[in-house]
Amino acid sequence: MKPRVAVHKFASCDGCQLAFLNAGEDLLTISTLVELVHFAEAGPVDPDARVDIAFIEGSITTPHDIDRIQRIRKNCKYLVTIGACATAGGLQALRNYANAEQWVPEIYAQPEYIQSLDTSTPIRDHVDVDFELWGCPISTQQLLVVLRDMLSNIKPHIRQEKVCMECKRNQNICVMVTQGSPCMGPVTQAGCGAICPGVGRDCYACFGPSENANTTALANRFEGFGFLPQDIIRRFRFINNNATVYKAEAEKWSAKND
Amino acid sequence: MTSNVNFLAKAGLQTLIDNLVSLGYECIGPQVRDHAIVYDVITNIADLPVGIIDIQSPGQYRLEQTGDKNYFRWNNGPQAIKPLVFKPEEPIWSCQKSPDGNLRFEKNMISVKKRAVIGVRACDIAALFLQDKHFLHDHNKDEYYRDRRQELLLIAANCTKSAATCFCNSTGDGPRAHYGYDISLTELADGLLVHTLSEQGENVIKELELRTASQEELAEADSLINEAAEQQRSLPSHNLKDMLFSKLKDARWQQIAERCLSCGNCTSVCPTCFCHSENEKPAMNGEVSQHTRQWDSCFSQEHSYIHGITIRSETQYRYRQWLTHKFGSWHDQYGRCGCVGCGRCISWCPVGIDVTEELNAFANGA
Amino acid sequence: MDIRFPHEAEIVERIQESPNLFTLRLRFTDPQTQQAYQFEPGQFNMLYLYGAGEVPISIVSDPMDDNLYDHTIRAVGRVTQGLADLHKGDYIGVRGPFGRGWPLEQAEQKDIVIVTGGLGCAPTVSVINYIMKRRERFGTVNIVQGVKHSNDFFWKERYDMWRNSPNTNVLLAADAGDAIWPWHIGPVTSLFDQLEYDPDNVLIMMCGPEGMMRAVSHHMIENNIDEQSLWLSMERNMQCAIGHCGHCQFGEKFICKDGPVFSYHEISSLFGIKGY
Prior knowledge:
A: alpha/beta; 2 domains; 12 helices; 5 strands; 11% strand; B: 8-stranded mixed β-sheet; 16 strands; globular
């Protein structure tokens, strides 16, 4: 019997699900290898189906989300998060720094209809996760390798080296050294293909923290370039603002800023 | 310089490139891309970095247009010759799995073009010779490296200025190229001195409009190169092995680790670093898997990973591994220091850690 | 055989040795490759699992047996766990052999002490088998095995068989054990007063955790054993196995090609220093 696969969505932009849909020819191959039982964006809907692998996009932001993720966990053998939202709470975890009681009525005309948690949190905070894919969005290549490994019954593995390694292998020119850009590459996990530095832009850490990330040394360097504490805080409080090491670094600079 | 040094007008460079192309070489030369000097295919001397100089300091690299007519007054960019022979990433073999489970292995075959590289620096030639020792030294030669290396024709440019980060004079590898090139060029105010060391080199220059260089021109070249040898940075001594291995428990390693990002940029730009990992890329259909290799770094966690243990989990051990290898154990492995003084690891370190400063601090017991 | 690229080999037999230790008995599919293949005890092969990659695994069978090659593997990483799932009749890739094995010529006519720590230390199994088959060439053979817990001990039959061989001294120790564990509780070095050897004519071979090998080496050196008579098998990350990829460097040594077996003398300057 073919392995059964579900793709679920929580608070997210759907971009990581597109990593599946953008897989081209491999998508056709996947459809012959697995039974896609739930993938609303692609067609099949059966949210409570029992599956071998559940891919989860999005973060937990409502009480209903909490019930749903627990049901999904019970219904699947392996659970894999896809993307910054599911893995670290996403951009929307910036709400964790704000006061919900205050902002909800400021935005919504009838706040009584809003049933939302005060925080946006990663899936790992609620249920056991078997594997996490970082990125905003994730890389189709990484997704395919992880799925292939799981189908082959091999433990998936992603290198957590820094973006710099990928950047240099692509023979990109370092934007930090040539332009003084506040590039997050040295503290960010590779896997994206170093896309941003490849077009002369600084990395903004959408793949989350690398292994052994020395955020303090990098932040000090940004300060040396002339960036103010609030600029530095923004570098760390972005897509993966809720990732532990970025969060801690931002807090350090936040304390300096006060 | 020996007596068979010739003078070539600067416009003659175009004829040199044309000759190379007509002799079947792909011509690789320096050019400006994304705010740095890089080596890429070149057909026209207008694409050379005319008037450009590089201003380098720890963690910083800037280009400046001087308005002069020099083609080679820059020192270096992030790449040496390394990426041309030891590719950042390449497939080495693949495995096909048949439905009955049989495995068929296939070597990745490469076809190599004849390549001429213009503007190669003395330090980079020294680095290439070090990589030769590593990849070609015993019976297990690296075929990919060997095939690409054999097809290289090197046209050196002697350095007529040094960047603030250069220290080749103290490693003994520059600023003048003494070996390993086919043709060498020394750029003067209004021409180039040309010297050859190989038949292939002779073959390339034989149709150029050359004349024997004058005593004044030779003196001008010497004076420029001697000026380039006046460098701001230097190593404490030629052999730092015993000194470094006597300081393995020094508190300075941890002090460096506080600044170091362990990002691996230094090892990627280093023209002698050879570490690479092997990786598997299975196709989705389960029928074929590519085995590739890619540049790795002793600054990566996986570099020292064995079944559940990371030997160098902390940055201080990674930096120490790099330094004690490059300046220490390299002597035992390949008969000399693994550093050629190009200074790339200083400029391209995003936080500006200066290897000469660290080595001098260790040597002086600071 | 070109050792840069794997060759197909068939799993002729798969033996479960303990819960996470198994032996793959292999044969190259190509008879010529099979015939040409030769190795020494202590050398290793790179075993390739389709789609996952390669791992260095020491060869435990006898070098004179040119029909089959045994590899005893602990399922710890993604490749070895994947290999553990394979069955008789499945295929893998093999290239090798690599490295320098045990100094067996130097060991002849000497008393031998083989110290193993931890689980199923394959490099010493190969050398014990080798010596037992050629028993007359060696003096007294001491086989010392230390495990963390008595439950980790397996291959009891083998040890019993060795114990019953002439002029062979088998000593077993567990750091911790059940009431039924009949042997010693404590570190292997606490058994060393029971070793039988001539200190001027002995060769010591070790394999296992580096802490254990260090303790054994220090003990032997304190007892006036020459550093060049102490041999140990080292492990580091290995990917190319021919000294090119750089991962296994230990000071100036490439473990994959200069080792994996070294005399203590060759590696003592960095042995035990954290980070090397």
